[in-house]
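From: lab user (bench 3)
To: helpdesk
Subject: output format question, protein + L-tryptophanamide

Hello, I'm new to running complex predictions and I'm not sure whether the block I got back is the full result or only part of it. Here's what I submitted:
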Amino acid sequence: MSDEKKTIFSGIQPSGCVTIGNYLGALRSWKNLQDDYNCYFCVVDLHALTVKQDPAEMRRRCIELYAEYIACGLDPEKNVMFFQSHVPAHSELSWLLTCISYMGEMSRMTQFKEKSKKAGSNVGLGLLCYPVLMAADILLYNTDLVPVGADQKQHLELSRTLAARFNNAYSDTFKVPEPYIPANGARIMSLTDPTSKMSKSAENPNAYVSILDEPDVIMKKFARAVTDSDNKIVHDAQNKPGVTNLLEIYSACTGEPISSIEDAFAGKGYGDFKKAVGEAVVETTQPIRDRFKTIMQDKAYIEKCYTEGAQKASCTANKTLAKVHRKMGLAPHKL
Ligand code: ATP
Ligand code: LTN
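Helpdesk reply: Thanks, we reran it on our side. This is the complete output you should expect:
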């Protein structure tokens, strides 16, 4: 790892297959930033356990997500790529930060409010503490920059608050991280309800497009995407959220500005437009599907990469954790 380069940390939960939202909002930025930063890319498996998972399916998804990282262009030689649960310092720092966190600030988090509504009467404590674990992930590595989609802005703000609070209470220890949110594709919406975010854990598979969906499935999902009845292809988030979302997906995939897409499709119907969006997504994701199939044939390679990743991550993480122990007054040790 180079001393001159700044540090990036980011992660995705193995709660489903990577969607075009995860790709355009996060993974694509990671790929573009990997040459210029020291990067830690983590499969945040402990975060996924905040909602109930089937163990066999969870195990499969964990390995697949790691392979999807590689298939999306992340290089395990160049970056530190690992599973959160393989570096126990994450859980431990999470506890230490929990002790300086407040109930009020946790229960105000938008994601907590939304997910706890879904959970009904027995809301798991993990959902409430989730952002503290996320802060631990980031702060362990002296992270400068956190590339995420727009939905994570609030959680990142909390990581900054906790870092500053700790530094204030125990003297300068943590770097206060900055968010990196892409200009295009930071908030891709659901295809069945364009007023809510596309999520890989949505119950209805027509709500999301995953990067591993086959071309015919992608085309069908876009053909069915919810729009409206006036047949005009214009960007208007308030009144035309479905069409606006499709325009943003098309623009994020092709790099074309929204206004020139509007011009190109002026006078054309939704059918033609949806077909073009589907084709743009198929083209963007095809190389990823091809690479994924190859990588999944070599499980030993995947295991070697994530084992080495965890070893490298542990070195940095344990140093930070030892410093935190000292600052908080735990008994001295040379572990
Ligand atoms: P879940 O459905 O389990 O909540 P998710 O699909 O929302 O999962 P996360 O694992 O929580 O995805 O997020 C991984 C990364 O992808 C984060 O950086 C997040 O900001 C980004 N991301 C998630 N959904 C979108 C979206 N719809 N548009 C853009 N970025 C997104
Ligand atoms: N909370 C994030 C996932 C996540 C993360 C992180 C992202 C967990 N730890 C650290 C960036 C940095 C989410 O997208 N739901």
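A quick orientation on your result: The chain has two domains: 7-186+298-328, 205-293. Let us know if anything else is unclear.
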